Amino acid sequence: MAEVAPKSVLFLCLDNICRSTIAEAVFRKLVTDQNVSENWRTDSMATSRYEIGNPPDYWEQSCMRRHGIPMNHVVWQITKEDFVTFDYILRMDESNLRDLNRKSNQVKNCKAKIQLLGSYDPQKQLIIEDPSLLYGNDSNLERVYQQCVRCRRAFLEKAH
Fold it and tell me: What is the pLDDT of residues 69-103, one digit of tens each?
């Protein structure tokens, strides 16, 4: 019997120190808890170069610890190859969409479905706002976390 290749999802935001790493961590925890982690390759990346090589924001790491979700990540920037190797690229907001579409159009055999993670939100909150732009307090970060939790469940159900 042929072995089925795992599906792959890349979570993407501008700097990859907050929203996309939260989304990655909560999705990784969900597939681990449901014993389907071997069926998924999961990562998160940045569209910008600003934070390459840095860990996630301390504030975000504290939020994940409060929820008992492990994270171990270093910021990477998306490359053209990622459009070929990932099945899904889930963005947090509309920023850099033009650049992403341009990059994906330059890639032969682009297989990635580029979507907003918020399109899976059962509460219909399409954009996952950057909590630092919302004057960074714990309630804003918690709102991002809760939205990512809702979206990851719906995404897994539809993509599974």
Answer: 989 899 999 999 999 999 999 999 988 777 788 88
DSSP H or E stretch at residue 85: helix 82-85
Residue the block writes with tokens 């399109």: 119
11-22 pLDDT, tens per residue?
A: 999 999 999 999
Paired strand residues for 89? 10, 114
Among this protein's residues, is 130 annotated catalytic? yes
93 is catalytic: no
Eight-state DSSP code of residue 77: B
Active site residue: 18, 19, 82, 151, which one? 19
Which candidate in 43, 57, 93, 130 is catalytic? 130
Of 13, 18, 148, 151, the active-site residue reads 13
